[in-house]
Specification:
Low-confidence stretches: none
Shape: globular
Number of helices: 21
Strand content: 5-15%
Distance between the termini: 50 Å
Helix content: 40-55%
CATH topology of the largest domain: Rossmann fold
Largest sheet: 5 strands, parallel
Mean pLDDT: 96
CATH class of the largest domain: Alpha Beta
Structural class: alpha/beta
CATH architecture of the largest domain: 3-Layer(aba) Sandwich
């Protein structure tokens, strides 16, 4: 690392970046866009944009540059930061015994954030754009929690159905752009979800087709027939950027206002179904396959559900990061027992990797002390993450008459966390889009535990499953009476 004055990150200063740090070897001025990416946060820049950058380093994919986009007002701050540095990003890889940096440049512009999303629609209507990709979080697809299909009663969906030319949502903007393409005689684009949803391509298809049907049934049919929506699985642990990360990038000699740290692991498995071409991401390490499902099931159940197993216990015990949770003897032992007894039985192997081997890999990644992935970040939006990651496993356990005792404990820990007070008396700040409702219900559940399970939009009919509901009630009563550590110990010994 350098101790000289950090170099501001721009196209003009790339030559001044310390020579030990890899940087774009391609002419960024000669790149042309082929991808619009909506929801441009840290994960995208450390993952999908990195794969594209690596192709560009090989002299490939020069016509697949990325245009960043967002549909929420808070995206404007990131846009300002990235435009000020010509959309360059410093990626910092953190392994337990090594730190390394590189500068990537696959993104060349960030579209304006504006009501009605006119600039975004125009960009996606350009036939040069052949892929529209998204990372909008698991909870960003407007899915009805009970049916799993598009929530046609949501006010944003109602708005986009009534005013399709001035949409609020990313999906409404995609529909509007596809209408312009169809009406102009242009071809469709591929919609590529990069969110942690089982069958994310199928979900994106049903969302766009369902939304288009509200205003133009013929367009809905055209989208369904002409567009493609590959399923994909994405994997890399990418913490949020804070003061420590901003200081770290300066140690590398770079003044980057939006650096990204990440672990020394990436995986991207993609269904090879692109209606308008694609980059050869496999040349940068991605996997194209006709069967994404087994990969996504393994990752979502062991990694994503595993995060929820850890995070709420960590929050209650004031354990700051996921690595710290893995270093906590009770939390780590609970995690291992829930995984081996109640999650792995519902995961199939993928080529070359058994569920037990994948768990060992995930456990090592979670324990990486160089990755400061906060329990708060991982616990965020539990109403989507428990619904999407944990409860399907629990339902499988009930259906196959296998244990759900540990998963019931996981749900009880979430209910206790939503009461908003850690065991040391500190306040847990709101950490869910529906925090006020969750918080009120969690307080009621202290005396009436089953009130938590009566949230039908989350649990559906699980409140009527005695094996789960009885275990949940027992665990939640015990957490409130004896505390989290004593309850974890009791579960581990059971």
């Amino acid at each position: 690392m350098t101790t000289t004055r950090p170099v501001p990150l721009t196209n003009a200063t790339l030559a001044e970046i310390p020579g030990s740090i890899p940087k774009p070897n391609y002419d960024r001025a000669g790149l042309t866009p082929g991808i619009v990416h909506i929801g441009l946060g840290n994960f995208h820049r450390a993952h999908q944009a990195w794969y594209t950058h690596r192709l560009m380093q090989q002299g490939l994919a020069q016509d697949w540059a990325i245009l960043g986009a967002g549909v929420r007002p808070y995206d404007a701050a990131m846009r300002d930061k990235l435009l000020a540095q010509d959309c360059l990003t410093t990626l910092i890889e953190l392994s337990p015994d090594h730190r390394g940096a590189e500068v990537t440049g696959a993104m060349i512009d960030y579209l304006p954030i504006e009501a009605g999303n006119a600039a975004l629609i125009r960009a996606m209507a350009d036939p040069a754009i052949r892929i529209v990709a998204l990372t909008v979080t698991e909870g960003g697809y407007y899915l009805d929690a009970t049916s799993g299909v598009l929530d046609l009663a949501h006010e944003d969906i109602l708005h986009d159905g009534a005013r399709p030319d001035q949409p609020r949502t990313a999906f409404g903007a995609m529909v509007a752009a596809l209408k312009l393409r169809r009406d102009a005689g242009h071809g469709p684009f591929t919609g590529l979800s990069c969110d942690n949803l089982r069958g994310n391509g199928h979900i994106l298809r049903q969302t766009l087709v369902g939304l288009a049907r509200l205003s133009d049934p013929s367009l809905a049919a055209w989208i369904n027939a002409r567009c493609s929506f590959p399923n994909s699985m994405v994997d890399s642990i990418v913490p949020a950027t804070g003061p420590a990360e901003l200081a770290l990038v300066r140690e590398f000699g770079i003044a980057d206002n939006a650096p990204v740290t990440h672990e020394n692991f990436r995986q991207w498995v993609i269904e090879d179904a692109f209606c308008a071409g694609r980059p050869d991401w496999d040349r940068a390490g991605a996997t194209f396959t006709d069967d994404v499902h087994v990969y996504e099931m393994m990752k979502i159940r062991i990694l994503n559900a595993g995060h929820q197993v850890l995070a709420n216990a960590g929050e209650l015990l004031s354990v700051a990061t996921i690595a710290d949770c893995m270093a906590h003897p009770l939390i780590a032992a609970m995690f291992d027992k829930v995984q081996r007894h109640e999650i792995l039985p519902h995961v199939q192997p993928v080529p070359g990797v058994t569920p037990a081997q994948y768990l060992d890999l995930i456990s090592g990644r979670f324990a990486n002390p160089a990755i400061r992935d906060t329990t708060r970040r991982v616990a965020f939006d539990g109403s989507s993450r428990h619904t999407g990651f944990v409860l399907p496993i629990l339902r499988d356990g009930l259906a196959t008459d296998q244990s759900v005792n540990g998963l019931a404990l996981v749900e009880a820990l979430w209910a206790r966390m939503c009461a908003g007070i850690r065991e040391d008396g500190t306040v847990i700040q709101p950490n869910d889009p529906y925090w006020s409702d969750l918080h009120a219900t969690a307080l009621t559940a202290r005396d009436t535990p089953r009130a938590w399970l009566d949230q039908a939009h989350i649990y559906g009919d699980l409140a009527q499953a005695p094996r789960f509901a009885d275990a949940f009630e027992t665990w939640l009563n015990r957490i409130w009476q004896d505390g989290t550590e004593a309850t974890l110990a009791a579960y581990i010994e059971s």
